[in-house]
C-alpha cells in the first residue's frame, strides 16, 4: 500500500461525504482511507456505508481526545508507506495523489505538505476567509505561498509523512491546538527532509462564518505562544506581526479621538486588501468581505498571542491552567 489517508472527524458527516466523493475521482489509485470518529454526537456512519463498496475505506470510532490523538489512532491502524493527514473540510482535486507521487519520484522526502485554495462553489465568506489565511499581506505567505517570510511548515489539513518517520517521532503530541506545527517542528529538528509540494493542493472550506473564524485564529495565536514555550527558537518575526498590528490598531483608534486623520493608516491597509482580494477573486463583494476577514485574522491572532504571552510568559501559568476553557473542555 502506497498511501494511507488519515481523516479525523468530529460532527461533520456532510464534509466527509464531499471528501470521500473527491477520493473516488483520484487518478492514482494505490491508497486506503481511514476515517476516525472523535466522539461525535452526529456520526458519519451512513456516509461511510455509502462509500464502503466504492473505496478502500475503514471506519473507527473512539472517545473524544482532540484531532492530534485521533490522527495517531488512525495511523496506528494504517498500512501505507506514506501517511497523508487531511482535515474533514477538505476536497481533493483529481490529480492530488498523482502530484504527490510525481514529487516523491522526482526528489525523495520524509515529510511534505501542500497549499490550499477556495473552490468556486464555496460561499463568498469562505472565499474571503481563504484569502485572509493565504495572502502575503495577512499571513506572510507561510502557508504555502510563492512569497513567504518564513520556511514552510506542513499543516494538518494537508500533511504527508513516511510511516516509519511518523512512528519514530511518536506522532502528534497531546496539544489540543497547534499540534500540527509542533509535529512539523519535530520533523525539522529530527533532521528529516521536508518539502512543500506546490502541485499537491486541496480545496479547504475552513470556517463558515466570521465569528467562528475569529475563534479559530484567536486560538492559533494562543498556540503560537505555547509552541514558543516548548521551542523558543520557533518564534519568528512573522508570528509577532499580528500582535504588532493589533496594538497598532488600538493606538490608531485612540489617536483618532484627537486626530481623525490617523484613521487613514487603517484605510490605506484596507484599500490594499480590497484591491488585491478583488483582483484575485474577480469579485468586488468578496474583496469587501476580505477586508473584514483580514482584520479579523490579524486582530484575532494578535489578541490570542498577547493574551497567551501575558498568561504564560508574564504570569508563568502552564498550558493547561492558562487555557483550560479554550482547549480542554
Automatic annotation (TrEMBL):
<keyword id="KW-0812">Transmembrane</keyword>
<dbReference type="InterPro" id="IPR001173">
    <property type="entry name" value="Glyco_trans_2-like"/>
</dbReference>
<keyword id="KW-0808">Transferase</keyword>
<dbReference type="InterPro" id="IPR029044">
    <property type="entry name" value="Nucleotide-diphossugar_trans"/>
</dbReference>
<keyword id="KW-1133">Transmembrane helix</keyword>
<feature type="transmembrane region" description="Helical">
    <location>
        <begin position="286"/>
        <end position="310"/>
    </location>
</feature>
<dbReference type="Pfam" id="PF00535">
    <property type="entry name" value="Glycos_transf_2"/>
</dbReference>
<keyword id="KW-0328">Glycosyltransferase</keyword>
<protein>
    <submittedName>
        <fullName>Glycosyltransferase</fullName>
        <ecNumber>2.4.-.-</ecNumber>
    </submittedName>
</protein>
<feature type="domain" description="Glycosyltransferase 2-like">
    <location>
        <begin position="4"/>
        <end position="131"/>
    </location>
</feature>
<dbReference type="InterPro" id="IPR050834">
    <property type="entry name" value="Glycosyltransf_2"/>
</dbReference>
<feature type="transmembrane region" description="Helical">
    <location>
        <begin position="261"/>
        <end position="279"/>
    </location>
</feature>
<keyword id="KW-0472">Membrane</keyword>
<dbReference type="GO" id="GO:0016757">
    <property type="term" value="F:glycosyltransferase activity"/>
</dbReference>
